[in-house]
Amino acid sequence: METLRYFLPQCWFIILALFLLLYVMLDGFDLGVGILSLTSSDEERRGILMTSLSNIWDANETWLVLMGGSLFGAFPLAYGTILSALYIPIFIMVFGFIFRGVAFEFREQANRKFFWNIAFGTGSFAAALGQGFALGAVLSGISVDQAGHFIGGTWDWLTWQSVLVALTLIQGYVLIGSTYLIWKTSGELQEIHYGTAKLAAWTTLIGAVFITVSTPIFYESARARLFEPPLVYIFAAIPFVGVFLIAQLLRSLNRKEDRAPFVWTILLFVFTFLGLGLIVFPYIIPTQITIYEAAADPSSLVIMIIFIGFLIPVMLFYNLYQYIVFRGKVSGGQYGE
Amino acid sequence: MDFLSDTVVLSRMQFAVTAIFHILWPVLTTGMGIYLVIVEGLWLKTKNPDYYLHARFWSKFYVLNFGIGVATGIPMEFQFGTNWAPFSEAVGNFFGSVIGFEASWAFMLEAAFLGIMLFGWERVNPAIHFMSTILVAVGANLSTVFILIANSWMQTPAGVELVNGKFVVTDYFRALFNPFWLNSVSHMFFATLETSLFVIGGISAWYILNRRHEAFFAKSFKIVLAAAIAVAPFQIYLGHTSGEQVQHYQPSKLAAMEAQWETTPAGQPADWSVIAIPNDKAEKNDFEVTIPNALGYILEFRKELTRPVIGLKDIKSDERPHAVGLIYYAFRTMIAIGFFLAALMGLTVVQWLRGKLSTDAIADQKWLMRIWLFSAPLGYVAVESGWIVRCVGRQPWSVYGQIRTADSVSNVPASNVLTSLLGFTAVYALLLIATLYFGSRIVRKGPDLGLPIPGTEVTKPAIDTSPGEFVPDERPVEAQQ
């Protein structure tokens, strides 16, 4: 029984991390393309950008809904505390989602597309911004009482770290969005996004360096744990692997490769995420509440593993299937082969 | 304006506003999903291209509503955490996992196959496409199942034990299959179907009235009518059994629904009020029109009640709902619409049997078509009224009899909630207007009857796998070698 008390929350920590990672990668390029659409003055380009997402945006967003629902069930305490502490960033994100989500169909229908173009671009930007603030705030800590309930102020989330994380996350989304477009488009459009990808790769790198350098400083418990063997070896390797991946990414961009930039960016995301996971574990609200304290009853966790856990391969399969159905480049607001 | 600084009131208003608006969109998509399965199935079976064109035409409304349903639904989930953190913590063991099931079983299925359903006509073969349409409908309706199970558990919490302010699940399957679940899931399933049928019927009637593609829309009108024969009466029956359950499990809700202030003991008849002005302060109805002895017939099909109906006066003031008038009239609105739609169905079937709905005669049924057009929004009104009865009637509890709504609210400043409430109200109102605007444009534009029908045009498969016809070789034998 005692091992279950540790094993089950750890399982759910990993499952939630997987959902979040899938979300950040998939909706990451989705939101990134949205942000990139703000830089477009050309209606046709915007049409292609949105067509490249039209069949997948809601499935991509559903990973977050799934992550939220699973967090609610697996770590109810954390769900309530984190979301009520982050009231403002969460609603920035939510309103962003609303505007960008409805823009897909309304823009298609409207004669005058200007308003919905703006809604799509700024909505995507706001969603990414809200997520960045939320992530930054969780990493830099939430004030809670003994029982784990939020006791801080309503603007606690707004710190220089959260601003830094938000800006870096937006750069990351623009990067993965650009490489997605390199993969899905051709010609002049592809050419533009080699440029945006390169720029975003550098800005992401700068942000990431700042965060990496400042993390052990503002985050004492992480320092204590991460600078002890065996984690120190893994942790020390992360910056090197990160630099290697960025170098590979830039190389593939210079060589104008079609898919490699997207793959390298995905690897970069996976790796960054692994680093974050190592820093956060075993906390769900960093340095305050561990996953063991916030976890739901073992019986609930088991039921959820049965009903959700075993469905993960199925969900991955049919998501993959629809990417296969819609493979190929997008052109002129239509899917071509 | 005290409520402007009351987080409880504002959070309740926000949940009500977001829920009342949000439900408008998925109600149509869940019900219409089934309709799309029917027309696509008919197309595959009969090969009549009209059914294919119906699938293409009505799915325009599907996609218009679906995106907004997704976008407005996300705040519903996040609100449990942002505005109802203590509730989330208390119910997480059960309620939270059901929300997780909904996302993994229902939302993901619907979202992943919707792309193929909408844009995949040319990319997958008809069987895979049909399967996608079915899976989209299954996904949409599974979300009805899960969300109604979750809400039913809030009404009749079973299989759990409240320990230190948190529900511990003692029997997971009793919690899932709590007393209300089956009736509530069925009632909502038929509500989405009935609403969608009357929307499709109403729009079809509009075309018939305007003599545009009458023959084409007579088809959808008759499909709707045939389905409504089963759906409309059965929905009334489900309403009745839901009422029986409320009488048994939630006496305070029943008392408010019927504005009964005095208790009627078992073995006695009770009057049923048709119209009343409930006065919550004086604990009586200021004005009332009643049908003598009717309540017993309505609840139990007999004059004398076998079970008592508790009056509001006999329930502690802090354990019963106070918006009696709202609950009372919402309930009556729902019932009136339920019977009206069933009667309209009956009347139309009579005309159908008399042969008045044949393709060349249907456009002469002007009044009938006008009533159908008028009835298109009624299903929505009934759904909203029903949910008001269900959730306002549950007050002051968030989990009936166990946790109070007032104790479920997050520790966030009222000004935050007020800001988000105003934001939601403005944005959702805009979305509703936009939906009506773009929806009516789709209607005015009409179906694109010139669409190429898959399987009939020149795009032949590269390798012809159909068995070849035997062509006798008539060359001389020597040349055949």
Automatic annotation (TrEMBL), chain A:
GO biological-process terms attached to the record: aerobic electron transport chain
Organism of derivation: Myxacorys almedinensis A
Protein name: Cytochrome oxidase
One Pfam family linked to the record: Cyt_bd_oxida_II
GO molecular function terms attached to this record: electron transfer activity; oxidoreductase activity, acting on diphenols and related substances as donors, oxygen as acceptor
Transmembrane segments: 12-38, 85-102, 114-139, 159-183, 199-219, 231-250, 262-285, 300-321
Family: Belongs to the cytochrome ubiquinol oxidase subunit 2 family.
Compartment list: Cell membrane
Keywords in alphabetical order: Cell membrane, Membrane, Transmembrane, Transmembrane helix
One cellular component term from this protein's GO annotations in UniProt: cytochrome complex
Recorded topology in the membrane: Multi-pass membrane protein
UniProtKB/TrEMBL annotation, chain B:
Annotated GO biological process: aerobic electron transport chain
Keyword field: Cell membrane, Electron transport, Heme, Iron, Membrane, Metal-binding, Transmembrane, Transmembrane helix, Transport
Segments for region (Disordered): 460-481
Membrane topology: Multi-pass membrane protein
Stored Pfam families: Cyt_bd_oxida_I (PF01654)
Keyword Transport: yes
Signal peptide region: none
Compositional bias of kind Basic and acidic residues: 472-481
Localization annotation: Cell membrane
Residues that span the membrane, as ranges: 20-43, 55-74, 94-121, 133-154, 188-209, 221-238, 326-350, 371-389, 417-438
GO molecular function term, any single one: metal ion binding
Entry superkingdom: Bacteria
GO cellular component labels: cytochrome complex; plasma membrane
Family assignment from sequence similarity: Belongs to the cytochrome ubiquinol oxidase subunit 1 family.
Protein name: Cytochrome ubiquinol oxidase subunit I
Species of the source: Myxacorys almedinensis A
